[in-house]
Protein: Beta-glucosidase 1A
Organism: Artomyces pyxidatus
Amino acid sequence: MPGIKSFSKTFQWGFATASYQIEGSPDADGKGPSIWDTHTHKPSITLDGLNGDTATESYKLWREDISLLKSYGVAAHRFSLSWSRIIPDGSRHSRVNQAGIDYYRAYIQELLNNGIRPYVTLYHWDLPDALHQSYGGWLNKDEIVKDFVYYAETCFSAFGDLVKDWITLNEPWCVANLGYGTGVNAPGRSSDRKRCAAGDSKTEPWIVIHNQILAHAYTVQAYDNSYRETQEGQIGVALDSFWFEPYDDAPENVAAAQRAMDFRLGLLADPIFKGAYPPSMKKILGDRLRDFTSEELEVLHAGCTDFFGLNTYTTMLVKDGGVSDVLGHVTSTFTRKDGTVLGTESHVGWMRDYAPGFRKLLNYVHNTYKKPIFVTENGFPAKGENDKPFSDAIKDTDRVAYFRGYVNAMLDAHSEDGVDIRGYFAWSLLDNFEWADGYTTRFGVTYVDFATQERTPKDSAIFLTDFFKKHVPGQRSS
Ligand code: PNW
């Protein structure tokens, strides 16, 4: 259609989900516990005191979920596999659980039968608890890297005839900093003894970052060595970042914004796509940021991570100075120098709606890492939605406004700035278990009544369906 900006006809759009947030059925068919099962059964972990035992019951209702995806007319679907359904205690020395393999094969086959391309995340935070208990999980380099590669290879062998698009890890920054820094997420380690019995927030997050980079790199190497040629797929990683904008044009604040980008995104993206940590991080963290051995460097450099999975929700303004080294001695705010505030407020304190920052971030990732980009997560929790009656909640005006701004910013980045964007997965298909927020924060484009498990499309689902129908040539209709 002349005059209409569009993505390429192979553009992959759809929605994203994650196993622990939707599946429920924590003991079904031989599944072992994950660190999220254990963590959420401790007292006072989630805002509403609830856990993922039920979630959206998707372990049982998966056919219904796939029908919903089909009704939205998606090209693709991003979801994660639960490691402890496939290997109950996670270990490379243990048996594989055939029931877990069968379950996910049926799921993948059903997607394909409906013309929906599966984008499979191997790890979305639900580490088999036995690995944490027996050797410290992500803290133990020698064990976790081998166990992760074994698990990944199990999945390549079991599903690789059907799955061509793999994502190793989801948001390694959150795994490290929320799991081992603040301790809000599983496994709940931090230096804060009021909250956590054990942990060291100064050192452990950086160890966990390092070991996840290696788990990713060795998995890519295994894919290159044994699967790439026969399965003809691609493999990437989903990294999360805000766009950090300088508070003003003072040189120290401009430098601080770049430092925050280094600490939030470069921390993972530089080693994975360029083979080394950002120098600004080494300078501040010193020995706490481990060096890669020469063998590890070889693996990092030789491996081909095919695409950059980008999870992003918001923009923040950054000033130089601050005690925390998590973002490299900066302070961040949503309030501009003139007292005005960036974008519309959401239900959570860490994000607001600010689409211009998304376009800048897409340009930054494109120019810095030079890889095809898949936006693997992007979404908005409308403020107060959980307290609204159903009939108001499904008219999710703020979420529609957010998506309208973000997908148009992405379209401009693609068609005007030349950014190579191959796909977009909105977070999330369903209202679901939002980690430490429990069920109080709703991110879904589909409303879930948690008492009945009834699913109802919100206005945002309809908006996205119409948008991609219009801007992806040849999109099939539902
Ligand atoms: C991501 N932050 O989490 C996760 O990948 C999803 O599982 C989650 O449901 C979604 O985003 C919404 O929260 C994040 O504080 C959690 O910067 C927190 C942050 C970023 C991402």
Summary: The longest helix spans residues 251-274. Residues 18, 21, 170-171, 174, 240, 311, 350, 377, 427, 434, 443 surround 4-nitrophenyl beta-D-glucopyranoside (CB under 6 Å).
